[in-house]
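Weekly sync notes, structure subgroup
Attendees: PM, AL, DS (notes)

Item 1: joint prediction request from the bench team. They want all two components modeled as one assembly rather than separately. Inputs as received:
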Amino acid sequence: MPPSQRRLDRSLDLFTGLLVLAFVAFCLFPLGWTLLTSLKPEADIVTATLQYIPQHVTLENYVTLWQQSDFPTLVTNSVVVTSITGLICLTIGTLAAYSFSRYRFRGRGKLLIFYLVIRMFPVVLMIIPLFIMMRNLGLLDSRFGLALAYTTFLLPLCIWMLKGFFDAIPLELEEAARIDGCTRLGALVRVVLPLARSGLVTTAVFVAIVAWNEFLFAMMMTTSQGSRTWPVGLQLMVGEFQLPWGPLSAGGILSIIPIIIFFALVQQSLIRGLTAGAVKG
Amino acid sequence: MPMDPRKGVFAGDSNTSILVRAGSRIALISETHSWAYLLLLPSFLLVLAVLIYPVGSGILLSFREMRLTRPDLGTPFIGLRHYRELWSDPVFHISLVNTTIWALVGTTAQFVCGLISALALNRGLHRLLPGMRLARVLILLPWVMPSVVAGHMWALMLDSRLGVINDMLVRVGLLDRYMAFFADPQTALPAVLVVSTWGAFPFFTLFYLAALQGIPDDLYEAAGVDGAGLWLQFRHITWPMLVPIVVATIVLRMIGMVNAPDLLLVLTGGGPGHATQVLSLFAFQKAYAEFDFGYAAAVSVVMMLMLMAFTVVYVRISGVTKE
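Output from the run, pasted for the record:
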């Protein structure tokens, strides 16, 4: 390699490094700033001269949040709604995705495209009739009703992701099990599902993150403490005039901790699952 | 010895539990031709109930009067009246313009950031620069952040009195005084666009990085031997390989931008005045705050038609379907 080429490579490396660093800083700065704010006492947040490094580190915002707001209830509701959503999407999604992955039947392609196209429907257009529907069924302001509403946008996504994971499992293993006398159901339960375990976990995490974060449906469909999820509760904490920045930041940090942990655990498999179609072109 | 589950079903032993018997019966059905359809049935029914039915009745609702605050009006069929009212509603016209700016500028900014960051990450990973694997994960973080938290984080940073961004911009000398970004009609929409870019550009990074890593190295090596510089390599190898996924991601992102009012709801609520009012937020507020469901449905239908028109035209023009 000629020295000029090597010099070019080295300066490009430097440029690449700086560019990536700039993007990382852009991405992390708001998270870092919120964390710092959540550790400052109120007097140090509302101050004439901005403190970049907290001078009195305190957990009082977290204590206030936990004791004085109904954050524990909100989090419980969110956990319940997220779990039900995950359960519905994963059970029903697995059956459908397995069928799409293993069988060639009439209308298969059309149905797959259909499950892709329904993402185009405006959420607001669905929210209104769903609201009426849930009210008629007595499911309004219930955690199950909200979870059911979440399946509108999560189930189709879930099916597509799971199909990708199932496609990656060699057909031969299933056929071998069939030769050994397994039924199709038996092969699904004993062979395919265990092999697709990481894919199932990944899809579950993805569904959970989206359901955990969801705000619009929750805002519209929950009216009482019994089913309100934390994004709605956090938003309602914002008063008319004085913003409770300390507890608000603490609430933000607490509610993203599970996301960060789960995301870190499955990120590699998640990236693969989401981009499977992209690589094939 | 190969086992045959079919024997278990009719063996007739009374101590077989109901669960086992039900399992065997399903196992039997799984051998029939309708199995593929049966597997699809639950999802299809659910999609029908929570998606197709709502969308259909939403469209029908746009031709009806329905105000939850005025049950005395009933829900009579009123034809195109909502649409005529929309046409003469100044807020609708503002929302229409804002939605176009919001979706076009937002998607473009996110696309550019996503493409550049993906190219940088790809080169960094390829050259084994330190910290690149970690950077790949960290850059994706904003994308999994809830919009409520993202909104509050940025509202604090851009605050007119306590905002760290104001402080930094004044220190650097770009501003001479603190700005109330979300209260000024001139800066409100651009400010929310910055927040939305922060939250959504990783979506593009994710897909483009995956696509870039799927391009075989020898293509670049051959081009390098032929003396093609970086720009030519990008122009003739990278870009053509990326085009299909670029089209797909831009369509998906446009849909997301037009449909989701979360950030605007948290940050500005459409204000000041109607400076950040977009169609999705307008429809949501009509439904959530005024309970005028019929009118809100009409706004949503217009949004859906706009999205469909955009998707069809855009996919045609980009020509990805030709292959």
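Discussion: The two ends of chain B are 51 Å apart (CA to CA).
Action: AL to compare against the crosslinking data before next sync.
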